[in-house]
Amino acid sequence: MNNSFLSRLNIVNPGFSASLIWSLSLASVVVYVNLYVMQGMLLLIAEHFHTTPGHATLLLSATVFSLALSLLLMALLSDRFGRRRPIIWSLVLLAITNPLLVYATSFDQLMWLRLMQGIILAVIPATAMACFKDHLTGDWLLKAGAFYIGANSLGGIVGRLIGGAMAQHLTWQESMWCLSLMTAAASALIIYIMPMPKTAAVSTSRDTLSAEVRGFWLHLKDPQMCLVYLIGGSAFMVMVNQFSFIQLHLMSAPYGFSRFEATLIFLCYLSGTWVSFKSAKAIARYGSHKLWRLAAIAMLVGSLMTLYDHILTILLGFLISAWGFFLTHACCNSYVATRAVSHRAKATALYLCCYYLGAALGGPYLMPFWQQGKWPGVVLGSLLVISGLFVLQHLLAKYNGRAAEH
Asked: InterPro entries recorded for this chain (predicted)?
């Protein structure tokens, strides 16, 4: 990271801050590559493990489900024992467990391995934003968070494209060995560049487990926080699973895309990457509430555009939807990070738990729509959830209005 970029971040300790931002952002890329690589390999998974492509989409839901539930435990460990050590151990364990995927002989075995990896993958999302909050303040926090979220989307794109390329040209075993080598190399680099903070961000209290759990309750009894958690989870429920089913749609008639060609739809995430990098300035200027409404409208319009069964309108629709989703996600992250004055990792973990639970539930939720109506059915199911986003945003605005009056 060069000095001009650091100056735009207003960082006064560029050495430490640059290493922190780069290491956590690269760790985010590793996490999301490993999380979403299977989404680009649906047909290969279906063929290798003798199941249907629709059933193969549940593999992502299972991994995300274990990740979501594990976030709460990881937040407890993070607040108690610090951020850096759990992150390093998670990268090491991920590098160790990836070769096990080579030897999975059934879809059930693969499902269990991915459930285990979901637990490992939970560490970095549970601690990264809290780590930024510990060591960066004010405008620095917003901009570093935006950079990190942009890295999330890049990791998602790269993971799916890698998955599609491997599914097109390699066997299952060869694909998993490639994934293992890439993960091990990237993890070693992250561990090397990750800085050691001068002061460890750990809890100095002697709170019991019940007292620690009350840290979660502190945020759960905050209605504004809960509504933000639901907004993020609902938006992700739609977005990530639309990308699963659109691949199956594009690989069927009349398109007949190859496995890799179908994964190119994930390049539409680049609109989300762009808006993530720009989100800090927009949030500061317009506020989260206006941007949430704009983002929901974008997701609604983008989903409707894909019903016109032409590749150009599908691509444009997904570009608009991804833009709206990542703007929603950036606003939610910013809101949670700035509102939480204590138990920061727990606040972030609760948001991400709801966020990923939405993704995990979205697969089973949209599956009947796909089975009955194919892609138009998926759009119908998505519109029902997006309509709920407007209701949640209205309720959040009302709560914030009451708080302002007091």
From this structure: MFS, MFS_dom, MFS_trans_sf, Sugar_transporter_CS
